[in-house]
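ugh finaly. both done.
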Amino acid sequence: MIVLIFVVWALTTAFKQADLVKSKQLQLSLLEEKLNKAKEDQERLQLEIIRLNDPEYIEQKARKDFQMVRDGETLFTEPESAE
């Protein structure tokens, strides 16, 4: 009887541990994905910092993002199509 109780307890404990391991593995994989995304973001931002030291890149960004032009230039925009 004591052996049966011990076996039941051992099996119950083993199943609980297996569920806990699965849960922790899932949590680990999600955290690894977040870490990889953060590393990619960091690399992208580091490249942006380097590029912001280049006057040509700054000019391109100002033209694209803020529609800035040099003296004597005219900015033409296409009207958006109404569909």
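ok and the 2nd:
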Amino acid sequence: MYYLLLSQYSQGIIRSKISGSAQPGLKSDFIRHFPITLPTSIIEQSKISEILLIMDYAIEITKDLILKQCQVKTGFLQDQLTSGIDENGQIRNSNSHKYKHSPFGPIPEEWEISTLERISHRITSGSRWWAKYYSDIGAKFIRIGNLTREHINLKLDDIQHVHPPVGSEAQRTALEYGDLLISITADLGIIGVVPVDLGESYINQHIALVKLNKEIVNPWWVGNFLSGTEAQKQISMLNESGAKAGMNLKTIADFPIILPKKSEQDEIAEIIRQIDVQIQTKKEYLAKLQRLRFGLMQDLIGGRISVLSILTQIRG
């Protein structure tokens, strides 16, 4: 009965019975006249329920694994972005290594303190009034919705395309591999790094573009550092006062950054990348399980496939 009432068929009936505008609700006697279609065999009902319960269990286990990996990443980021890895591959600590003061608290003595301006070739922001260049195909137009706080990779499932104007304005805001992106209005300080395979792309006026000097910094180190807890605290305090949230380019340029040696940046960035890949793989698997569970529920509850055929496939 639980899965029957969750099915599209039953949910459609329930929605059709909802009445009232100020306080939508169901009448107390609606359940008395609710149409039910179910197998006459209690054994078949039980087997259908068993299959769907197994799917639900697999989904919950996968959600727990994703949550645990996200917690591992958070802890790893906290350690690596403030202590790093020593020459023996171990996380540094104050008992065995010397530390010094930084705007983000104690850091290893050998790390440098710099600013985004010093480690970049150029800092700018996207152009206004590009809506007139929108198109169904063409170059990608990156907006704040393409950034996420879950990681520093771009979200490209909902992308706007443009035919950019010819001239210096398009050249100024064109994206390249390893560019750092920072949201500077609305939801401030969301970080992204441009991947190698993005293709021709531009940004809108709500995003700052930092052309990092890739000879001295790893863009993924910088991106992960800025998305970490301590840097995000600093970003929230640097928000310009006023009714509308925002940060200017001078604020971005002056923002402090801590830098291990380039080789250590590379090593830490790669470990974080691997963790992100593992999390993303499990999220894709979760989405696949949820689609399979949804399809099975509709097919089994609706009688479009028999439980015997499913059990035969599982045993096979």
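summary for the 2nd one i guess: The longest helix spans residues 262-301.
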